[in-house]
Amino acid sequence: MNKVRVRFAPSPTGKLHLGNARTAIFNMLFSLHYSGKFVLRIEDTDLERSARVYEKRLIETLHWLGIDWDEGPDVGGDYGPYRQSERLEIYRPYIERLVKEGKAYYCYCTQRELEEERRGLLLRGLPPRYSGRCRYLTERERRRFEAEGRRPTIRFLVPDETIKFFDLIKGEMRFEGAAIGDFIIVRSSGVPAYNLAVVIDDALMEITHVIRGEDHLSNTPCQLFLYKALGLKPPKFAHHPLLLGPDRTKLSKRHGDVSVEEYREKGFLPEALLNYLVITGTVLERGREIFSREEMIKLFKLEKLSKSNAIFDLSKLKWMNRHYLRSLPLEDILDSLRPFLKEEEFKKLKENPKILGAILENVETLKDIPGFLDIFLKKGLSYTEEARDIIKQKGAKEVIDLFYQYIVANKHKDLMGILDEIILETGFKKRKVMMPIRAAITGSTVGPELKKIFELLPREWIVERLAKAKDI
Ligand code: GLU
To answer: Is residue 198 in contact with ligand 1, taking CB distance under 6 Å?
Structure first.
């Protein structure tokens, strides 16, 4: 195989959709698996909707997720510039050539005329394709439109030919030129449209494989016509199935959060999100779902992509997050946790990461962690309603008092051992002893294991909290 070169080509118009992140990951893994190069290209020719702040955020979000590239607007490379808005001069000679050779033409139809034509076709039950009525304008007609102040688009004259290609995921593909209307390659603003820019860029950047979502499949024949018309060599194509919502429609805002940023803010770990997106729609290895980055690179192949669409499953993502919260090194978790913490909390956890270890067993996301920190970091405590109710239940104060007396008398060193003795002594069920103690010492009815809390809390804090609980 020639040296592999792939690209991820987002439009910087908003947040990074989970489906697009998945495409980026597939491209990155493919390039790393075949020791190729991965290019980030910013498709910002939609000047009204694109913005630099989105690009900056996009780059930051991709890096957060663990996606890195070899060439791109931020890191440079031999095939730049990597922003389409900076390549307008590069496209110009190709456009001129197409027009000169009669493969493209100026179209003066207004939005309104096109809309009318569309409606007319739909009414007659015909596909709403552009009729090609500007295909053969005379010089005089053109001048008249110009004089009217109409600003033309440039359309590609689609040949009445069949386009065939082999998609590396979907297999043999075949499209009829006759079914495709002459499409716009340059907008009336003079800026090239997606299909043209993408072809010239992929060719000049020597992209060998275009791996993208199958929502782009209908663009591929248009692009292949352009490759042919321009005498450029097309890359290989691989259109992967999409990420769908539970109702099997394209994952969108209607289904809830759909961007990487939103999951980041909700406290998901990048490692979990990356792993989840990789296994959703691929089988890297039968019977396994957790993979290290190295394993993903080693095992990733286009053949391992499923041929059917993947369904987004939030409960699975949560499961994955819990898994990584419990298995990653504490320093890594602490790094991801930092934005959720106050500076003081971060410092204390860094000094005593065991506290984090104790909490992690009980949480689903990073966002759940700060709620448990006060137990370990603040001497004083506030009690939840539920905790107060438990403490007020019959027998609870008795248990709390016994525990208090035992500790103060220092009869027993091991606090869990004391609890066992209290169970024997009172004849209470285990729960009836544990719950009041938990409530008294943590102010809550849920949280880390008591055993771990005892190990991490200073004795005097425990005594003080027990005393305070007795007064509730
Ligand atoms: N800018 C296009 C998108 O964001 C890229 C499509 C492609 O990969 O060709 O969907």
So the answer is: yes
